[in-house]
Design goal:
alpha/beta, TIM Barrel, ten-stranded mixed β-sheet, 13 helices, 14 strands, globular, disordered N terminus
């Protein structure tokens, strides 16, 4: 498969080198043809890393085979041929799952990562607060927090923050089906006196109630706060279609404030490679505190040109969005760094370009992040163990702790 990419690259570069006359174009004049310079760290930069539950990658035989099989491009086998040092592990609230969680925590502690971002917290639409969040999600959060007395996890100096799964909550919403117009839901329950009662919640009230459930964890001494404010990361926030986005986000903040006495810090995780202006009617006019990006090594089908000068492309994207949201919304920007991405692992498809792991390129992307820090410096790493797309940096048999070591070297003094 690389041969296709190489041929395309030669044609791409040839556009700039074919003409040798003085009046012709030169590759030296191409705007992306510049070096990513090493930027010294004068103060520690806070780093968060996304945690995934890799159970699907490790239980699906086809996916596991594509991760670990020998690399053979002629046969169409373009997986990484690697295996995590922990093996084919699971995460969960049991002895084995807790041991694996502790091992992942230890890896991150050694890299001086400041906090782990949980897997997405999803709504349980069939129950009222405090049972309105998926029980498996809250159980895993309690395990991560170190607050499960049966399976205590030692986070050391590290913290955790919750990822809100907006894709789950916003199912059925669209620009023609707004949050405020969504159908009410009736909940029947038995009160302490044994009387059956009904409670009716609007979809908007359900949203606030879900954020209340997340905010119950803010009192943990292991919960990550930024400048004294508890952090929530919003996954797929563009799915929250509302007639008045500002009113909805103000409602989220007010509900949390009344429930906990704290001012929440909301970070929207924006779709990779998209312009921030696209989300004016979503989280930007809603007034989130900061925007970060999804995995920028997920180049996407049809955008092969991004594979060449990838780090420069990422830098220009970050710079444009960072400046745009600061100037138009007063919103901060928090860059993300990824080491690799391989959609073939997930589905066996060759439609999307593959970004393979390379320590030197990962260092450059770390420097791109340092070039695009916001007014409140913070960097996200995507991710720790996303093996389903081979977007993981946890220690493996072929590279050990290389990528975790680079994180420590790049973002800590």
């Amino acid at each position: 498969m690389k041969s296709k990419y190489i041929i395309t690259a030669l044609l791409f570069v040839g556009l700039f080198t074919a003409c040798t006359e003085d009046s012709g174009p030169s590759i030296d004049d191409y705007p992306l043809n510049y070096q990513i310079e090493e930027i010294a760290v004068t103060a520690d930069i806070p780093v968060g890393i996304y945690l995934y539950v890799p159970n699907t990658a490790f239980t699906n035989e086809a996916i596991w085979t594509r991760i670990t099989e020998p690399h053979d491009e002629a046969a169409g086998k373009v997986g990484p041929n690697i295996e995590p040092l922990l093996g084919r592990y699971t995460l969960g609230v049991n002895d084995e799952g807790a041991q694996n969680m502790q091992a992942l925590v230890n890896y991150c502690r050694d890299a001086r990562i400041d906090f782990m971002v949980t897997t997405g917290l999803k709504e349980n639409a069939n129950a009222l607060y405090p049972n309105n969040a998926n029980a498996g999600d809250t159980a895993l959060i309690r395990l991560m927090s170190g607050k499960n007395p049966d399976f205590p996890i030692d986070l050391g100096n590290m913290k955790y923050a919750i990822l809100m799964d907006m894709n789950n909550f916003c199912s059925g919403l669209s620009n023609n089906a707004l949050l405020e117009a969504a159908a009410d839901k009736t909940y029947t329950y038995t009160d302490p006196d044994g009387v059956r009662r009904d409670t009716v919640l609007t979809r908007e009230e359900r949203l606030y109630s879900l954020f209340l459930r997340a905010s119950d964890f803010f009192s943990d001494d292991t919960y990550f706060h930024l400048n004294g404010r508890p952090v929530l990361v919003l996954s797929n926030p563009e799915r929250l279609f509302a007639a008045d986005s500002r009113k909805v986000y103000d409602g989220i903040r007010q509900a949390i404030r009344e429930h906990t006495g704290k001012e929440v810090y909301l970070i929207a995780r924006q779709v990779q490679w998209t312009p921030s202006a696209r989300y004016h009617y979503h989280f930007l006019s809603g007034g989130v505190d900061a925007v970060t990006m999804d995995n920028m090594c997920n180049i996407g089908a049809g955008f092969l040109e991004r594979l060449y000068w990838l780090n420069q492309f990422i830098n220009e994207n970050f710079k444009y969005n960072r400046e745009y949201i600061a100037a138009n919304y007063g919103t901060d920007f928090m860059p993300s760094v990824s080491a690799s991405y391989n959609a073939y692992i997930n589905n066996g498809s060759y439609n999307s370009p593959i970004v393979e792991k390379n320590p030197d390129e990962f260092r450059k992307r770390c420097n791109v992040a340092k070039m695009n820090l916001g007014s409140t410096p913070l960097v996200f790493i995507d991710g720790l163990n996303n093996w389903q797309y081979e977007a993981a940096i946890e220690p493996a048999n072929t590279y050990g702790t290389t990528y975790l070591d680079i994180i420590r070297q790049q973002f800590k003094r």
